[in-house]
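Lab meeting notes turned into a lecture example. A postdoc, R.K., suggested we walk through two folding results consecutively so the class can see how the record format repeats. The first protein's sequence and structure tokens come next.
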Amino acid sequence: GREVIDRFQLILEIFAMRASSPEAKLQVEYARLSYELPRIREQVREALAVEQPGLMGGGEYEVNVYFDMIKRKLASLRRKLAAIAKDREQRRKVRWRRGFKLVSIAGYTNSGKSTLLNALTSGRAEVDDMYFTTLMPRTRAIRSSGKILLTDTVGFIDGLPPWLVEAFKATLEEVYTSDLVLLMLDASDTIPELMRKFRVSREILSGHGVRVLTVLNKMDLLAPEELRRRAEIIGEAAGEVVPVSALKGTNLNILVEKIRNSI
């Protein structure tokens, strides 16, 4: 028969395929082991339930050994990821001391974040019509504003479990500590889907005190009336909305001016 996997197993498999840097691979491995740990704990519980009192069965022993191995591995990965987070924090402090402003591109996965990074900077971020093309932050200077640094980050998804958030904490910190966050939305989505992704993204950003500018991307895929309707609906919840086409370059000069005025 066919193997059945849940949603988060699928996400982890996609992450594993897309992870190319050592840091991304560390984060994916931490997420995978964090996902496995509760299941191994349940196996230990089941093994204890069937073993005879006073005896140590081989099955229980093997599961316990594997459980302890995963806990040790997670502790090691936590130390490495903490060192990465500290290094990123130091780099941010150096940039701030040198007068740079930090702007992050955030939003639901596959909304065009990497395309916008490439359009506004000299970056060559990989662009693909697939989820989670970006797992690691990429930072480049905006061409027309050398003192403004733009960072492309991992895409959001709804219902992020705590273990996945923890695994990518160093990456998400790039968003939470920015001077400004560009919240990217895909204008070609249906209005209910657009609003759902907006709410998910704002929920992830909430509680961190970040300044947010909402960007309605892929305006080239809509008729003017459809675009106006979506901008009005999102604007009621978000305040100011800037429609752009990162692919075609439409309204990018307006967006850069809005960025300058916001920081």
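The second example is placed directly after the first for contrast:
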Amino acid sequence: MPLSERSCALRRAFSVRRSKLFLAFVALTVLALIVPTINAQDDPTKRIPPILPDLGGRVITAVSSNDYTPFAFFDQTLNKNVGFEYELLDEICRRLNCVLDHKERAWDGMLAAMNRREYDLAHVGITIKEERKELVDFSDPFTIVELRVLVRADEARFTSLKDLQENANLKFGAQPGTTSYFVALDIVGAENEAARIVPYDGFAIAVEALIKGDVDAVVADAVSGVGFIGATADKLKLLDEIIGTDPLGLVFPKGSDLVEPFNLALASMRHDGYLKYLENKWFFLFQP
């Protein structure tokens, strides 16, 4: 074979080999991309958004004290309990195919009742706290709120948390066993608990005592604080300082099989923006 023909043949053979190598590389690359996808599809909970389980119309007994605006409270105009959490739970059960059976009881003893499995779920702006996890299980947080101090609108004796802390004559109102009480205790110190914290049976009752002048301050998350400001015709205001942040979650009995599906539903709501919609509706647009 002449040299020129041999050279052309070699070039053709090299070109074919290079094409085959390229195709093999492409095939391996596609396979590498497909395999993780297949594995992820084997576990529906890993999808974004997750594939939600079907609870088959299961009845979920949900308990609340209904005294924490705007999360769960009684609307006198509508003559029913409403709020962020009621709408949240309605949407969760719509997605999971479950039915809500609402109950009401005071906050005092609610977590102990959950520990005894008297209800399937509890909600009323409940803070996720490590020590509470010894009694109950929590969902993932559905929102995170800022903690601030609620005072009377005409309060002129102090304008800062430091002033409030240092004046031994000023008192907090709070419901025992709540974040409001724990934070007030941190502010005044355990040695001053009896002298500077007045206990009440409910958060709303503590706010009423504040309006009447029986106490001087109530620790509240900023969202509920704004709700009470609106509900009391601007008789209250919030101090500017932010004490901290509070993750809120739904409460379940220890080992409840509802935690995972409810968390998956919450994850789907984060993905499609429904949680943001609820925050905008109840935290900013809602007028008590």
